[in-house]
Structure formats: structure tokens, C-alpha cells
Design a protein that fits this description.
The protein is of the alpha+beta class. The chain has helices at about 25-50, 55, 60-80, 185-195, and strands at about 80-85, 95, 110-115, 130-140, 155-165, 170, 180-185, 195-200. It is globular, with a radius of gyration of 17 Å.
Length: about 200
């Protein structure tokens, strides 16, 4: 089977949504397309050499991290008022151009935090509860179809963006390494999901 590239269904974007920071639906579409192009090009190269697809090589956390970084870079390139936060591990990932010195801030408020996850509904773990604009891209991967060369390409199924506060989070128990995380609670995730950008199955 010929390697397939995922496609975007433009009819699944929420044309009624009010986006912050002068973002446009096209910014999301282009970012998603950039990720699709990357995975298609890399997987073609890998399969031509008899290797596994990148989707099958990467651990889930690593894949989510790579996708989040790619989406951040692409949206920063095309957005009208947002740029990448130059502070290493700074928050949020995208900040308003010129709002902070050298477009770098350890912990700012004016911008958008980008997350990606395989969890349906967008309930993604964060490093802490804070007031922020959060954007979550939910993606689907096929690891079951055999032979592996027939597997569906990675695709985005849901995208949400919304303003949440500290009260919208619940704190999770510390893991084995003592890392504390927080996840949107029932009210918080309902708030996020009400601000959907793209729903493939809607």
C-alpha cells in the first residue's frame, strides 16, 4: 500500500468561534498541515529504508512533545500577533509580540500554551494550575493495523482553545519521581471543550 498523508476536513472548523490574540482558523489549519507534511516526508524516508514509521518508533510522551513543539513553531510563524517564547521552558509557549523583553518570559500571562495529546476530549496533564489560554490538539495514531505499511497516518481529531483559571484544575498525586501535575477538572474541561476549533467527528 502506498503511504498516505492525512488530510484536513475544512468543514470541521468552528467558524463561529471567537479566537484570542488575533488568531485565525487558517493559523490552526496551516500548523496542522505542516505536521502532516513532516510526518509524511519522514515516514516515506524511513519506510523506503525498511525502517519503522516515526509514529511507531516514538514513545507517546516523546511524540506529544515533538508535535507540540512543531505546532508552536508553525503557529508562531503564521500568527499575526504571537511569537515563540524564547525563554527555555517558559510559559506560555506563544506570547504576544513585544509584550515581554526580548520576547522571553519565564511565566507570563499574555499568550497561548500549546498542548497535544492522544486523550480524547483534551484532558491533558500540565505542570501546574494557572490562569492561561490553553490550546489542546488531540491526535489519533494507528498502531494495530497489519501489515504495518497499511497503517493510517497520524491525524488531528480535535482542537480546543479556551481561557482557564487556577480554580478549573485539580491537582494530581505525585508520581514516583515526585513530579506534581494538574489536570482540568470537570468544570474546566467543559469550559475548554465548549471552545472547540476543530472536531473531525462532529
Amino acid at each position: 500500500m502506498t503511504l498516505q498523508k492525512a488530510t484536513i476536513d475544512k468543514s470541521k472548523f468552528n467558524k463561529a468561534i471567537e479566537l484570542p490574540f488575533q488568531l485565525r482558523l487558517a493559523d490552526f489549519e496551516i500548523a496542522m498541515e505542516d505536521v502532516y507534511d513532516f510526518f509524511f516526508d519522514v515516514n516515506k524516508l524511513l519506510l523506503d529504508r525498511g525502517l519503522k514509521r516515526l509514529d511507531d518508533m516514538l514513545r507517546p510522551a516523546a511524540m506529544s512533545g515533538i508535535i507540540s513543539d512543531m505546532l508552536t513553531a508553525s503557529m508562531a510563524k503564521h500568527a499575526r500577533s504571537l511569537v515563540e517564547n524564547k525563554h527555555f521552558n517558559g510559559h506560555p509557549d506563544l506570547i504576544v509580540q513585544g509584550r515581554y523583553a526580548n520576547n522571553s518570559v519565564k511565566s507570563g500571562t499574555d499568550g497561548v500554551e500549546i498542548k497535544s495529546t492522544r486523550k480524547k476530549g483534551g484532558a491533558v496533564d500540565t505542570h501546574g494550575a494557572r490562569e492561561q489560554y490553553m490550546c489542546v490538539f488531540v491526535y489519533d495514531t494507528d498502531h494495530d493495523t497489519e501489515p504495518a505499511t497499511d497503517r493510517r497516518p497520524m491525524r488531528f481529531t480535535e482542537v480546543y482553545i479556551g481561557h482557564v483559571t487556577k480554580r478549573d484544575f485539580r491537582k494530581n498525586a505525585r508520581g514516583d519521581l515526585g513530579t506534581r501535575t494538574a489536570t482540568l477538572d470537570r468544570v474546566g474541561i467543559t469550559k475548554l471543550r465548549s471552545n472547540w476549533v476543530y472536531l473531525l467527528d462532529k
